[in-house]
Amino acid sequence: MRLQFRLAVVVAVLVVGCAATEPDKMIVLASDKSDEMVILANCVNVNNVGEQSSQIAYYSSTHNPSPAAIAKVQTPFGKTAFWEGGSPISATFADGNVFSADIPKDISIQGAFVGLGKNNAGTFSCWRDWRPDTYTADGVRCSGIYTCDHRAPPGNEIEVQIEIGQNSVVLEGDVDAWQVFHTVWDRRQARSCDTKPVAIPDTSCTITYECFGATDWEITNAMATTVNGVLAKAVKKVEDYTVRECQEVSDIPPHKCIELIPVKHQRTNIVNHGRLDVTNVSPAGSGIPNSLAGWLTYDISCPTAHGNCAGCKAAELFLMGGAAAGTYTMNPEVAGAFGGLNVLTTAICALGGC
Questions:
Q1: How many whole angstroms separate alpha carbon 313 and alpha carbon 324?
Q2: What are the residue ranges in the chain where pLDDT is below 70?
């Protein structure tokens, strides 16, 4: 199976410009305030945790422990804002400055680029940034969900291709695939992977990674996130099966079983091979050849493996979000892993009978 992810180019003009001199005001200053940031937060009443709300907090510097100004987001009483609703969420500060954040989809990967924000002075880039108990003010305790600042949003176009094998390994029980593939974090390095096999607990199987990243940590981290967060869910399939087990044994030698009953069990099929290829795509008509950004493979080795077209098709269906193979659809998780916002995916199961 080959799957192709294409990160759309995101271009933003950054116009820096707001700071605060009083706790309840945001004053527009010169464009040298590149260290300022805005936190989109969900809050709870310290005396009644069932009463929730949302705020937008302005920090004149990322080094400041407390916000310089806070604006409340208008929501139904006791509810938080739906930040990822596809429509901009805004709040007005005491001086009339309005901050608005446009986050089209929920991308849960920490540090991922999620959308754009703006105030009366200019544009911000917004990132997934979970910050529990960021600040407390006016009887509410707030945790940051997103941070908007003046870091440049992703501007390069990247193509990610994923190839998934047809064979699967069978593990007894409902195995946590996230834990199996979480081992990639112990093996990925700045530009390569440690190729020493990792034992999969409670099995006779091992998993091995090989990888390359053209830049320190950036690509290997993104590929590891994709394997652990996206592929782990796609390549796993749990099935039930029934075996007849002995319920009663005869007291008379040779003590044969005299009663068999059907007993249900579960087993997990995991596709035993996958590969990611990441390419930097040059602008159309530029004449500049595309360049390799990185690649990663995983291989699970067990005493036995078997062909599993159903597993291949299930992985294809999961990664395509239900869309027909060969068409294009969105996969925000892969986009988040590579710091992008929009991703087009296409998937076709490998040849050979599937």
A1: 11
A2: 1-33, 154-157, 282-289, 304-354
Output the CA torsion sign for 236, 240, 242, 245.
positive
Tell me the CB-side half-sphere exposure of residue 91, using CA atoms within 13 A.
Answer: 24
Give the chain's end-to-end CA distance (angstroms, integer). 9
Q: Which long-range contacts (CB under 8 A, 24 or more apart) does 171-175 make?
A: 171/200, 171/203, 171/205, 171/267, 171/268, 171/270, 171/302, 172/203, 172/265, 172/266, 172/267, 172/268, 173/265, 173/266, 173/267, 173/268, 174/238, 174/266, 174/268, 175/203, 175/236, 175/268, 175/270
Residues 6 or more apart in contact with residue 259 via CB below 8 angstroms = 246, 247, 248
pLDDT digits over 24-70, tens only? 333 333 334 678 999 999 999 999 988 999 999 999 988 898 999 99
- Which residues share a beta bridge with 143? 42
d(CA 315, CA 235): 5
Report whether 104 contacts 126 (CB < 8 A): no
Q: Is 33 in contact with 19 (CB distance < 8 Å)?
A: yes
CA distance readout (Å), 30 to 104, 260, 297: 30, 82, 49
DSSP assigned state of 49: E
**List of residues 6+ apart from 69 with CB closer than 8 A:** 20, 22, 23, 24, 25, 26, 57, 58, 93, 94
The predicted model scores a pTM of 0.53
CB atoms within 10 A of CB 26: 28
| Angstrom distance (rounded) from CA 75 to CA 81 | 6
The per-residue pLDDT for 69 is: 95
CA dihedral for 313, 299, 291, 160, sign (positive or negative): positive
